[in-house]
């Protein structure tokens, strides 16, 4: 549009200049003067408003960024644990410890012995030529205390690499990898840490013999005295053995046994073996541990036979295989639990990260040292707290200086002109400053001792800036270390040791919430109780505060029945500052509203300037047209005048 207007103005100017040569009037200058007289003042007024609007937007952005930097710096200190008491270990190469968010561990003192670290079971296969070497097809069954899972191996994934991918994609909880060195490629398997996570891998009945090279810990029947016995099942009649066909071979004779829904139990299996007529006797042996199948041949020695589930048999049928498939993989490391001795008592855990042994502390075991006592203590963040308070005061004063400049009633610009600040007398900025100034008197801790910044030495001066009385801060921190620390760190705690708060820090709004009639979960009762006067909602062993409750977001667990308890949630200075920032910048907040208003004004002014430019160009074109017509008439009049003057001269000459 600018190019078009400029071109039009240039063309009009050329026409007017040409016309001026004929009529003696500088119509180009005249048109320009008329347009300027009509529109320059209006344009200047809008441009001035645009300059003011831009200054306001820039100033608002500076203040908004200042608040962000203020809040972010403090939040980083808090989230990094710099302002919280941290546990210390006498030997970090054996054990390290970290404080949970919001935990108060100033009195931490514990003696521990790391007798054993948790390990994951790992297996390794024999060597293959490469990861692309075909191994076999069929099914591999990975089983642990948590259950079993069948993995199908076919022509699409029967290589070493394909089997690794299939295991990883199966969700069995075992990680597979192919490791290659100068001797070839090997398959490695690794489970989670903990004794309960030990696993076996066995080819399912009917699988290619090649998969046997990947077997480890195959289950099946075993020799016990003069009998071959099966694994123990819970009941002879109700526990399933596994439907499908089984091949029973004694000497050179074989019979196929069929187990279906009518005889899928130990009794049915015993009847099928006895009915095969191969000289074996199967009986059921029952004791306190359950029932198992016992097979003899009357010789007084363990019988010699094979029992092999067919390819149609269910995976559980592998428990009745005899003899058992030999291990093809080698166990490089056995699964085991971590064992930590505390107060003379051995505690076992499946992981080396332990967060339920010491309240408020997460332990990480690095190595076993059974003959060494590790001491845990607490290190107070004395210097960090003092520096944080000092930095807070400095950052606040810097932000206030920016606000003062933006809202000054009289300021001198770079050219020496005296003017007001771009956000002078702005109600939104006044509201923002009011909220920030109230931080010194905001209650940040409700657990006793000093509760506000003012009480630990942060004073508000007459000009609105802050100053720090370091002596007051030092005395308060020495007397009430937990209270001062809590003012900077979000905390949540229960008055009852039987109540564990499991909701994330900040999930519930700050405040004090009453618990009543808490009934702990047992084998016969469900967890129940009231939180903040409203019945809680029980899910998965946790009690959730109702969404209609003021404690919404709070989640607890109970280790015992509690008639009454109090939950206290404090957000600390970082949370309070974050809350102010969020409220100011939230949709409909004062800064959001001001920003929207300034942006709308900016767009309106741009539209006004565009419309004014269009109107001035239209006016210029209209004047150009009018003066063109005038010049044409003047030229005609001059031509007529010249003709008449010539005629008069002729007449006068002839008369003489």
Write a structural description.
The protein has 656 residues and is α+β, with helices and mostly antiparallel strands. The protein folds into four domains: 2-59 and 595-655; 86-118 and 337-379, no CATH class; 120-333, no CATH class; 492-570. 35% of the residues lie in helices and 27% in strands. It is built from ten helices and 35 strands. The strands form ten sheets. The protein has a five-stranded antiparallel beta sheet with strand order 1-22-3-18-19, with no helix packed on it. A five-stranded antiparallel beta sheet has the order 27-35-29-30-31, with no helix packed on it. A hairpin with an 8-residue loop joins β29 (511-519) and β30 (528-531). It starts with a helix and ends with a helix. Residues 1-22 have low confidence and may be disordered.
Q: Mean of the pLDDT scores?
A: 88
Strand order of the largest sheet: 1-22-3-18-19
Give me the count of strands: 35
Domain tally? 4
Name the beta content range: 25-35%
Low-confidence blocks of residues: 1-22
Q: Which features does this protein show?
A:
656 residues; alpha+beta; five-stranded antiparallel sheet; 10 helices
